[in-house]
Write the structure tokens for this entry.
Amino acid sequence: MRRRDAWMTLAMCMAWWMALAQTPGPVRLANPSFEDEPGASKVPARWANCGNEEESPPDVQPGAFGIDLPAADGQTYLGLVVRDNETWEAVGQRLPVPLSPDTCYQLDLYLGRARELYSVSRSQNQRTNFITPVLLRVWGADTELCARGDILAVSEPVKWFGWHRQRLILQPVHEVRYLTLEAWYAPDFGRGVNGHLLVDGLSELTPVPCSERVAPVPQRNPRPDTT
């Protein structure tokens, strides 16, 4: 009887260990705070330009186009714009391990906006302030870098100035090997506008129950825009 109980205990332990081994773990992005030498039309290290080929790439901020907002995490951050000729900026990277379908992942990040980002309007051919609020879309794909497979999450429009800590829940329906962060037009403001958003301090992609609601995160705003 004791031997039978021992075998049952061993079998239960092995089943528990196998289930634990199959549970997806956190996925860490490369260069999650977009650290690099600041510069205009410069993609941060470990990221790729996924925007329109005929347009300029994103920027490593601060310092370009009049932006002087300090980073929320580290020294530099990502700047993305949308344009009035219906082009937009995006970056992407290959994940170290794929995201599993039917598993949800929590992503915390800083999203922000500066009071000034002066560049040339493509449709009007004149200097303008790219100040219209935009939102962030997160794409996932399993085919190639920068591919738009499925939209995993969409942020609220970034209408504030300075930094706010935000939380997104990514919900893959297919295996995701490539992740893309894309600036996109906010519904309230329509297409054909000039706007921007700033991104910094991406967390790990942490598995969470898919039933979990997007809860507010503490607003750690270490360097608010007070101008």
User: Anything to note?
Assistant: Confidence is low (pLDDT under 50) at residues 15-21, 218-222. The first strand starts at residue 48 and ends at 49.
